[in-house]
Amino acid sequence: MKKTLIGLIILIMILGAVTTYRYNLKYTKVMNDIQLETSKKIESLSGEIERLKISLDEYKDHHEEEYELRNVLDIKFYDLMASLRSGDEESIKSFFYNDIDYMDNSIKYTYEGESYEYNFDDEDVFRQRFFFYDRERNVFESGYELINTDVNDVLYITYKMVNKQWKIVFIKKDIG
């Protein structure tokens, strides 16, 4: 009986050792798989973070360029308004890319095959409400709210870079 008991204990120990060994092998394989999967995920996320950093930097650069351009063209807009108030036809024409006809506070021009007319009122007071810079087309669009009217009039202006100068190619008052 003693021999049987000792044999049984040895058998249980061997089975326990084998089971523990097999469990450790499976555990090690599972852990290695998890570690490999985690490493791949970390590598993928690191690449995504780098792409997002580059995108963010590009966005920041574009936004800074757009805002700086907004400031420059906003000043140019108010210079145009001053020229319109003074009636200086040569100065007024210098702001535009297309040939314009200016007479009695009225600007007539053609844009993309359509004829337009902008009638300027000396009493107009403007506040810029939006702007957008399309770097690929080299076009800057801006909208000015007329703040001295009871309706929501907006003046739309499109500038285009021509010979290293920003010129107005479109100006239209949208009466709200």
Topology at a glance:
Layout: H1 2-86, H2 89-94, E1 101-103, E2 106-111, E3 114-119, E4 126-134, E5 139-146, E6 154-162, E7 165-174
Antiparallel strand pairs: 1-2, 2-3, 4-5, 5-6, 6-7
Structure description:
- With 176 residues, the protein is an alpha+beta fold.
- The chain has one domain (1-176): Nuclear Transport Factor 2, Chain: A (Roll).
- It contains 2 helices and 7 strands.
- The strands form 2 sheets. It has a 4-stranded antiparallel sheet with strand order 4-5-6-7, with helices on one face. Strands 1-2-3 form a 3-stranded antiparallel sheet.
- The N and C termini lie far apart (106 Å).
- The model has no long low-confidence stretch (mean pLDDT 87).
How would you briefly describe this protein structure?
The chain has 176 residues and is an alpha+beta fold. The chain contains 2 helices and 7 strands.
Main attributes of the structure:
52% helix; four-stranded antiparallel beta sheet; rod-shaped; single chain; alpha+beta; three-stranded antiparallel beta sheet; 176 residues
Residue runs with pLDDT of under 50 for 5 or more positions: none
Q: What is the CATH architecture assignment?
A: Roll
Task: Summarize the main sheet.
Answer: 4 strands, antiparallel
CATH fold type? Nuclear Transport Factor 2, Chain: A
First-to-last CA distance: 106 Å
Beta-strand share of residues = 25-35%
Which value, in Å, is the CA radius of gyration?
Answer: 36 Å
Task: Look at the structure and give the mean pLDDT.
Answer: 87
Strand order of the largest sheet: 4-5-6-7
Number of domains: 1
Using the alpha-carbon principal axes, give the shape.
Answer: rod-shaped
How many strand elements?
7
What would you call the structural class?
Answer: alpha+beta
| CATH class label | Alpha Beta
Tell me roughly what share of residues is in helical segments: 40-55%
Helix segment tally: 2
Note the run of SSEs as H and E: HHEEEEEEE
